[in-house]
Write a structure and sequence with these properties.
Blueprint: H1 2-12, H2 22-33, H3 47-62, H4 76-82, E1 95-105, E2 109-117, H5 123-136, E3 140-151, E4 154-156, H6 160-172, H7 174-182, E5 189-198, E6 201-209, H8 216-234, E7 237-240, H9 253-258, E8 260-271, H10 272-279, H11 283-301, H12 310-320, E9 335-340, E10 344-354, H13 366-375, H14 386-411, H15 415-421
Parallel strand pairs: 1-3
Antiparallel strand pairs: 1-2, 3-6, 3-8, 4-6, 4-7, 5-6, 8-10, 9-10
Helix pairs in contact: 5-10, 5-14, 7-8, 11-14, 12-14
Length: about 425
C-alpha cells in the first residue's frame, strides 16, 4: 500500500525526487553518447522513472524547464505500452461541461452533461446555450444511420484488363474474404466490400462492424490478411495496406457519401417563441443565415462540409473522451439544415463520419475514462456496440447544440460581443 501511495505522489509531482542520482547520471550519459536511445529507457527503469529521466534529459538538451508537463495524475504503466512512446509527461486541457441536454436517441435516452476539452473561450458557453434550447424543446431526436469502419488496400495490376479481373475475383470470392477477415478477430465482422479502379490501380474498400471499438487496429489486421489473399490469387501487387480510399484522417467525399465509423443524424423542432426567447432571433433569420452561410458559402468555397463549426464540438468531446483527436476532422463533413415550419423551425445536423469507440485507444486513460463514465458509456456495451453508438448519438446532439447556438448568435448579430465578453478575442 505504501508503494502505491508513493507512486501516486511521485507521478503527481512529476517524480522530481532523485534527480541527478548516480543511476540517473549513468543513463543520461548513455543517452548523450548514443549507447541508449530515448525509447529504450524503460528497459532500464520503471516507467515512472523513465518518464522523469527522459523529461530531465530533454530539459538539459533544450535548456527548457518542463515542470508543468511533469505534473500528472494518470497511471502511466499502460499508457507507455499502448498510447504514447518516448513519454515525458502530459499536456493538460481544460474541461468544461455543457448541459444538461435532453436526448431522445436510439441508444442515448435521457439527460446528459457534455464534457468538452478546449482552450477556446466561448465554446462551452455556446454549446451550453444550445443544450438549453434543445432541452426546453423536449430533447433532440438522434439516430445512428450507418455503422462501419473502413480500410482500403491498393494494388497495382498489369493492365486495365487485369484490374477488371481483380475486381471480378474479389466480388466472386466475397464469402471467402469475409471468413478470412473475421478469423483475425473475435469481435469484428466484415459487412461490406467495394472495389474501385484508377487506371492500373485497384482499391478494395473493406467495411467492418467493430462493436464498441473505434476499430482501426482491428480492421487493419483483418485487411492485411484479405489483401494477402487477393494478391496471391490474382497476381496483383499489394502496394499499400491503406490506399487513401478508406479515407482515414482526411476530409473526403467518400466518407461523406458512404459513411465511416458511426453515421449520425440529430434534429430538434423549435417554436417561434423558443427561437425568440432562447436564441434572441427569429425563424426566418435562422433559415437565411444557414442558407447563405452554411450552404451557399460552403459551396462557393468548395468546402466538403456545410456547417457552422461542427468540428469544434467534435474535437472537444473527442479529446475529453479519449478518442483519436485526428479523427475530429471527420466532423467537418457535417451538413446543417434549417427548415421553416408552421410553428417555427426544424434544425438538424447530419454527421456521416464519426469514428468513435468506448474501448481501446485512449478510452482507458483515467481522465478520459472518467468523462466516458460521466456519459454512461465507459467500456463495452450490452449488447456489444451499444456504448459506441450511444456515444456517437451524444456527440451528434452536442454538435446540434453548438450549431443552434452559433446560428442564433450570427442571426442576432451577437457573435463578436459574446467573444469579447468570454475572452476569446
Amino acid at each position: 500500500m505504501a508503494d502505491d501511495t508513493g507512486q501516486q505522489e511521485d507521478r503527481r509531482i512529476g517524480a522530481a525526487q532523485g534527480r541527478d542520482s548516480e543511476k540517473d547520471m549513468i543513463i543520461k550519459n548513455k543517452l548523450r553518447d548514443g549507447s541508449i536511445k530515448l525509447y529504450e529507457i524503460e528497459k532500464e527503469l520503471a516507467p515512472i522513472d523513465a518518464i522523469r529521466i527522459r523529461r530531465e534529459y530533454i530539459e538539459d538538451e533544450t535548456d527548457t524547464r518542463l515542470d508543468n508537463i511533469g505534473i500528472f495524475s494518470i497511471d502511466i504503466e499502460r499508457v507507455v505500452k499502448r498510447n504514447c512512446e518516448n513519454m515525458i509527461g502530459t499536456v493538460q486541457v481544460p474541461v468544461g461541461v455543457a448541459g444538461p441536454i435532453r436526448i431522445n436517441g436510439g441508444y442515448a435516452q435521457g439527460s446528459y452533461w457534455l464534457p468538452l476539452a478546449t482552450t477556446e473561450g466561448a465554446l462551452v458557453a455556446s454549446v451550453n446555450r444550445g443544450c438549453s434550447a434543445i432541452t426546453k424543446a423536449g430533447g433532440a431526436d438522434v439516430r445512428v444511420l450507418h455503422d462501419g469502419m473502413t480500410r482500403a488496400p491498393v494494388f497495382a495490376t498489369e493492365s486495365v484488363a487485369h484490374a477488371s479481373e481483380v475486381c471480378d475475383w474479389v466480388k466472386a470470392h466475397r464469402a471467402d474474404l469475409k471468413t478470412l477477415a473475421e478469423s483475425t478477430t473475435s469481435h469484428g465482422k466484415l459487412t461490406d466490400l467495394v472495389t474501385f479502379v484508377a487506371g492500373t490501380s485497384v482499391y478494395v474498400r473493406l467495411e467492418f462492424d467493430t462493436k464498441d471499438a473505434m476499430g482501426m487496429n482491428m480492421v487493419t489486421i483483418a485487411s492485411a490478411k484479405v489483401a494477402e489473399l487477393i494478391a496471391q490469387s490474382t497476381g496483383a501487387r499489394l502496394i499499400a495496406l491503406s490506399g487513401n480510399m478508406c479515407t482515414d484522417k482526411k476530409p473526403a467525399a467518400i466518407n461523406a457519401i458512404m459513411g465511416r465509423g458511426r453515421s449520425v443524424v440529430a434534429g430538434i423542432a423549435l417554436t417561434h417563441e423558443q427561437v425568440s426567447t432562447i436564441l434572441k432571433t427569429d425563424a426566418r433569420a435562422l433559415v437565411e443565415v444557414n442558407y447563405r452561410k452554411n450552404l451557399l458559402g460552403s459551396a462557393r468555397a468548395g468546402a466538403l462540409g456545410f456547417n457552422a463549426h461542427a468540428t469544434n464540438v467534435v474535437a472537444a468531446m473527442f479529446i475529453a473522451c479519449g478518442q483519436d483527436a485526428a479523427h475530429a476532422i471527420d466532423g467537418s463533413t457535417c451538413i446543417t439544415t434549417v427548415d421553416l415550419t408552421e410553428t417555427g423551425v426544424y434544425v438538424a445536423v447530419t454527421l456521416p463520419s464519426l469514428p468513435v469507440g468506448t474501448v481501446g485507444g485512449g478510452t482507458s486513460v483515467e481522465t478520459q475514462a472518467e468523462c466516458l463514465r460521466l456519459l454512461g458509456v465507459a467500456g463495452g456495451g450490452t449488447p456489444p456496440g451499444t456504448n459506441a453508438k450511444k456515444l456517437a448519438e451524444i456527440i451528434g446532439a452536442g454538435v446540434l447544440a453548438g450549431e443552434l447556438s452559433l446560428l442564433g448568435a450570427l442571426a442576432a448579430q451577437h457573435l463578436a460581443r459574446a467573444h469579447q465578453q468570454l475572452g476569446r478575442g
